[in-house]
Amino acid sequence: MGTLNERERRLAAGPGPGGAVPAPTSRQRVELALAHIEADRVPLDLGAGPTTGIHASALYRLRQALGLDAPGTPVKVTEPFQMLGEVAPDLVDVLGVDVVGVSLPTNLFGFASENWKPWTMFDGTPVLVPDQFNTDTSADPDGGVLMYPAGDTSVPPSARMPRNGFYFDAIKRQGLVDDDHLDVEDNLEEFGPITTGELEHISREVDRLLPTGKAVLGNFGGTGFGDVALVPGMNLRHARGIRDVEEWYASLNLRPGYIYEVFERQCDIGLANLAEIHRVVGDKITAVFVTGTDFGGQQGPLVSPSTYTNLFKPFHIRVNAWVHANTRWKTFIHSCGSIWRLLDDIVDAGFDALNPVQTSAAGMAPEALKQKFGDRVTFWGGGIDTQSVLPFGTPADVRAMVRDRMHAFGPGGGFVFNTVHNVQAGVPTENLLALYQAVNDSREYPLG
Amino acid sequence: MTVLEELRQAVVDGQAKMAVAKATEALEQGIAAEVLLAEGLIAAMNEVGQLFEEGEIFVPEMLVSARAMNAALAILKPLLADEGEGARTAGTVAIGTVQGDLHDIGKNLVAMMLEGNGFNVVDLGTDVPPARFAEAVRDGADVVALSALLTTTMTNMRDVVEAITEAGLRGRVRIVVGGAPITAKYASDIGADGYAPDASKAVRKVRELLAV
C-alpha cells in the first residue's frame, strides 16, 4: 500500500459532515485505486483502452436501451480491428465511467480515424467507419470484408472479416522464412520515431479530455513486445520479416536471438517516443497502456516461464523503470488467459495495473489473485466473466457476479472495475443493463 | 542411445534436421518405416503431449516438435504408402474452425498432435460451413473436430451437429469440440460426443471415442 499524502487522505475520507471535503474527481478516484487506497467508490472503466471497450454492435443496442439515441443512429467504430465502438461522453456520464483514452490518430490498419461514412454491419448494426475502411464485399469470394493496409487497395488485403462475422483477423501474407536473409529491420518497419503530427494530435486530445475530470489512459503503442495481434503488420503494404503468428510463436523457440534483437531495438524506439510524448503532455496522463501481448491461454501460459523471463521481462523492466523514473504515469499490462505461473515475474517487472484479469482461465480465481498480488498490482478488469456469464447467463447471474467481484477485488483499493476484456458482440442488452446497474449499486466504499 | 531413441529425442527437442538425419540413418540400418513411425515419431509426440499437459512445455516448444515430426514423417511417408494407407492410420479426423471464425492456432495444434499420433487428418481450415463438415463425414471421416475461439461463433457448433444429423450421418461419426469458451457442459448441450481443453487431451479424447 502506498503512503498517503494529505490530498489523498482528504480525498479518501470523502465528504465530511458539512460537505467540506469534495468528492474526488474521476481522475483522483483512479489515482487512489492505483495507490491502493479506497476512494469514495470503485472506479469504472469502459472504453478507455483497446481491451477495455465494447463492440459496436453491443454498444448500439446499449445506447438504444438507455434512450441515448433515436433508432437507427449509428455508433462510431473507433477501433476497426476489433470493431470497438465509441464510448461517447453521454454514455460516460450515464454509466459513471471514470477513465477515458487517448490514442494515436491512425489505427491498426494504418489509416486515420476520420472522414466518417455510414456502413451497416452484417448483423444490421448501423455504424460510422473511417472513409478508408473498405465496405465493398464484392472482392471477397465468400462475401466477407477485406481490409487493406493504409487503405491501399493496390496491394493485397491484410485482414478479413468473414461474412456474418463481427471481427477482423489478419490474413497470412508470408511464405517460408529464409533464415539466411532474416534482418531485424524487417520486423521493425512499423516502429519509428513519433511524428510531430502524432504528438500534436496526442497533445490536443489530452487537453480536450482533461477538463472532463476523467483519468486518461494513454494508448500509444510501440512498447507491446511480440503482440501477435500486431506481429502480422496489418498496416504495412509489404510486411517483411516474421509475420505469420504461428511462425512467430515457433521463433520464440527457434530464433530467440533474433527476437531479442527486435525487442531491444523496439524498446529503444518506444522509450524515445514515450519521452517525446511526456515532453508534450507531461503528467496529464494517468496511466499508459504498455503492452497487450497475451501470455496465457485458457488452460495455462502460452510461453514458458523462462521464455517470459529471458525474452520479455528485460524489456518490461526497462519500460516500467523509465516511466517510473521520468513520469508520474502508472503502467498498464494486458494479458489474456491463465498467467498465474508468470505473475510473480510480471508483477516483479514493475507493472502497476493488470488487465483483463481473465478469471475464467485456469488458476485465476479472484480471491487468490487478490490475496497474493493485491498489494502490488491494481486489478484493472476481472469485473465480470465475458466468456460465459455476460453472454449466456441471466441478469441475475450478472448482478451476483458483479457483487462478488467488488468484494473480491475492491477491498483496500487496487481495483478498477472493467469487464474481462471488451464487451463482445452478441451480449444480451438486458445483461449489459444489469451489469452497469449492479456496478452502480455496489461500488460505494465501504463495500456493502 | 539407439537410433530410434535418438529420433524420438530429436522430435521431443524440436530438432528438425536431427530428426531427418536420424530417420534416414534408421532406414539405412534396415528399420521398417512403420516401426520408426510408431516407436520414433508417435512415441515422441506422446511424450510432447504429456509434457504439455504437465506444464513443462508450451506452445512454441509444441510447434517446433510438430515441425520436427513432420520433417521426419516426410521421409517415411512414401515408404508407408507402400504398406497401404489404412494400415498405418488410427482413424480419419476432419478438423476445422467453425463458420464465422478465422482463428486457427489452436485448431492447428490439435491437428499436428493428431497427425503425430498416427491419425489421418483432413484439415478443412477456418470459417468452415456446416455442410462442409457433413461432406467430410460422407467422405469417410471417423471423427469431426470443431474449434471456436469466439463467444459469437461457438454457437455455430450446434449447427454443425445438426447438419450432420440432418444428413443422416450422425451415427457414423464422433464429434469433439474445443476452444477457449467451450466447456464439457456445452459439448453435451449441443449433442457432441466429447470436449477437450487442449491439444494433448484432444488426442486422448479421440482415441477414447474410437477405442484405439
The CATH topology name of the largest domain in chain B reads: Rossmann fold
N-to-C series of helices and strands of chain B: HHHHHEHEHEHEHEH
Structural class of chain A: alpha/beta
Q: What is the CATH top level name of chain A? A: Alpha Beta
Q: What is the largest interface, and how many residues per chain?
A: A-B, 34 and 28 residues
According to DSSP, the number of beta strands of chain A is 14
Assembly type of the shown chains?
heterodimer
Residue fraction in strands of chain A = 5-15%
Name the CATH superfamily assignment of the largest domain in chain B.
Cobalamin-binding domain
Helical content class of chain A: 25-40%
Mean pLDDT of chain B: 95
Give me the number of helical elements of chain B. Answer: 10
Radius of gyration of chain A using CA atoms only: 21 Å
Note down, in words, how this protein is organized.
- The complex is a heterodimer of chains A (448) and B (212).
- Chain A has a single domain (6-115, 178-442), classed as Alpha-Beta Barrel (TIM Barrel).
- Helix content of chain A is 35%, strand content 12%.
- Chain A is built from 13 helices and 14 strands.
- In chain A, helix 5 crosses helix 7 (256-281), helix 7 (256-281) packs parallel to helix 8 (305-326) and helix 8 (305-326) runs parallel beside helix 9 (340-348).
- The longest helix of chain A is centred in the middle third of the chain and has 26 residues, at 256-281.
- The relative contact order of chain A is 0.13.
- The mean pLDDT of chain A is 95.
- With 212 residues, chain B is of the alpha/beta class.
- Chain B has two domains: 3-87, Methyltransferase, Methionine Synthase (B12-binding Domains), Chain A, domain 1, CATH 1.10.1240.10; 90-210, Cobalamin-binding domain (Rossmann fold, 3-Layer(aba) Sandwich), CATH 3.40.50.
- Chain B is 58% helix and 13% strand.
- Chain B has helices at 3-12, 16-28, 33-53, 59-82, 85-88, 105-116, 130-138, 156-166, 184-189, 199-210; strands at 92-98, 120-128, 143-147, 174-178, 194-195.
- Chain B has a five-stranded parallel sheet, sandwiched between helices.
- In chain B, helix 8 (156-166) links the parallel strand 3 and strand 4.
- Chain B is elongated and about 50 Å long.
- The mean pLDDT of chain B is 95.
- At the A-B interface, helix 6 of A face helix 4 and helix 6 of B.
